[in-house]
Amino acid sequence: MMEQLVPEFRTHPLCYLDYTSLCRLSMTNSLMPKAANDDNAWNALYHKCLLVAYMHKFPPI
Q1: What is the model's pTM?
Q2: Who's near 41: CB < 8 A, 6+ residues apart?
Q3: CA dihedral angle for residue 8, residue 35, residue 21, residue 51, rounded to 10 degrees
Q4: How far, in Å, CA of 37 to CA of 14, rounded?
Q5: What is the rounded CA–CA span in Å between residue 37 and residue 30?
Q6: What gap in Å lies between CA 44 and CA 1, rounded to an integer?
Q7: Which PANTHER family does the record associate with it (predicted)?
Q8: Which letter does DSSP use for residue 27 in this model?
C-alpha cells in the first residue's frame, strides 16, 4: 500500500522524526530505506538541529 502513495506523501511525514527514529526507520523493510534516505527528511532534521543550536547560543532577550 505504501508504494502506491505519491513519493511526497511517503517522505514528508519523515521530516518530523528525530535522528534515531529516522535511522531506525531506514532499517525496517525494503521500502523504508529509500524514503528514510530522502534528502528532504535529512534537510529538515539538519535545520531543526541548527535552529536549536542557534537558540542555545543566542537566546532571545
Answers
A1: 0.53
A2: 11, 14, 15, 17, 22, 35
A3: -50
A4: 10
A5: 12
A6: 25
A7: F-BOX PROTEIN SKIP8
A8: T
**Residue type for 25, please?**
L
* 50's grid cell: 541548527
Q: What is the pLDDT of residues 3-35, one digit of tens each?
A: 666 666 667 787 788 888 888 888 887 777 777
- The C-alpha atoms of residue 59 and residue 55 are separated, in whole angstroms, by 5
The per-residue pLDDT for range 52-61, each reduced to its tens digit, is 777 777 777 7
11 sits in which H/E element: helix 7-11
> Residue with C-alpha cell 517522505?
11
Q: At which residue does the C-alpha cell 535552529 appear?
A: 51
